[in-house]
Amino acid sequence: MRRSVIRVLIVVAFLALAGWALYARFAPRPVAVVVMAVERGWVEATVANTRAGTVMACRRAKLSPQLSGKVAKLPVRKGDRVAKGSLLLELWNDDLHSRLTLARSEARAATATAAERCLAAELAGREADRAARLFRDHVVDAQALDRATAERDTTHAGCDAARAMAEESASRVEVARSEMERSILLAPFDGIVAELNAEMGEMVTPSPPGIPTPPAVDFIEEGCMYVTAPIDEIDGRSVRTGQPARITLDAYPGERFEGTVRRVAPYVLDREKQARTLEVEVAIDDPASIPGLVPGFSADVEILLERREGVLRVPAEALSGTDRVMLLEGDHLGERKIATGIANWQYVEVTSGLGEGDLIVLSLDRAGVQAGARAVAGQPPSP
């Protein structure tokens, strides 16, 4: 009897061991998932541009002389830094200089003539006053008084005419000066010569109406740059001037630069496939910290709308839907609905549904990741 019981126990143990081996061999293996413990930290609400933006100079002038002519002076070269008012380019203008010199000489002569005639008019006025007194004293007759009065009026008219001629001469000086200035290009502000499309001795011609031609000098302001970028019209409602922003440049991978919103366009900028965008300008806070930065670089902006510190947060990639996350609970996966607050592309604020330390699944795209599946934290096995 005792031997029979022992045999039965041995058979049961063998069957159990065989069953466990078969289960271990053919049962689904646990899914290896990447998990992260829910933690507290900062979360930011941001908006970003819909298409690549462009770095712009705060001021940029594309300059050309207003006259046609041959380049006589070209004291700058591409890349030169020049101060406001410095000479950039001057056409041959000896004839205009001569006209200005002549106009100034004529103006001086006219001014001297006016002074002479006005002195004569002053003297004639005194003579007329003297004749009037003598006439009252019966020393001179009425004919002498009439002659003195007429002389006074004539010389006063001559004085007024000479003054008018002097003013006309001064105006001719201004006209001659303006004509000469049209042959000269001066720096409108402190800046850098970005492009030069002229050489000594070359002929330059202003652009005909409606036919743009390259400027003789492309001049940009140094030390002030901004990014102009389009954002979706819905996001545009939340953007205000003065908000901080982060700028990334394709030419500087992996780096971010600080900026500030300086303008939000009050009108729709673009319409493409029913999309509506607004133009936003973000000033680069410290352009000097970006060596080699030039207008025309492509750029992206991320505008900070709000920042909260010390809140529960999960990575944005952990959300399987708009309000659900997958958790590792023991050795099984579970799904949980959560309530969220502000969010960006990196983190999402959790207002309810999770606790600090809960293990949320980040690798949602792996095969077998679903509620109820057996899982283990870690990387998938090597193939």
Characterization of this structure:
By secondary structure, the chain is α+β, with helices and mostly antiparallel strands. It folds into 3 domains: 43-56 and 223-377, Efflux pump adaptor protein, beta barrel domain (Elongation Factor Tu (Ef-tu), domain 3, Beta Barrel), CATH 2.40.30.170; 60-89 and 186-220, RNA polymerase II/Efflux pump adaptor protein, barrel-sandwich hybrid domain (OB fold (Dihydrolipoamide Acetyltransferase, E2P)); 94-181. The protein is built from 4 helices and 24 strands. It has helices at 2-26, 94-136, 142-181, 233-236; strands spanning 31-33, 35-37, 39-48, 53-57, 60-63, 69-73, 81-82, 87-91, 184-186, 191-196, 203-204, 217-221, 225-232, 244-249, 257-264, 270-272, 275-284, 298-315, 324-329, 332-337, 339-343, 347-352, 359-361, 375-377. Strands 4-13-17-15-14-18 form a 6-stranded antiparallel beta barrel. It has a 4-stranded antiparallel sheet with strand order 5-12-10-7, with no helix packed on it. A 4-stranded antiparallel sheet has the order 9-8-6-11, with no helix packed on it. Helix 2 (94-136) runs antiparallel to helix 3. The longest helix is centred in the first third of the chain and has 43 residues, at 94-136. The chain is elongated, with a radius of gyration of 44 Å.
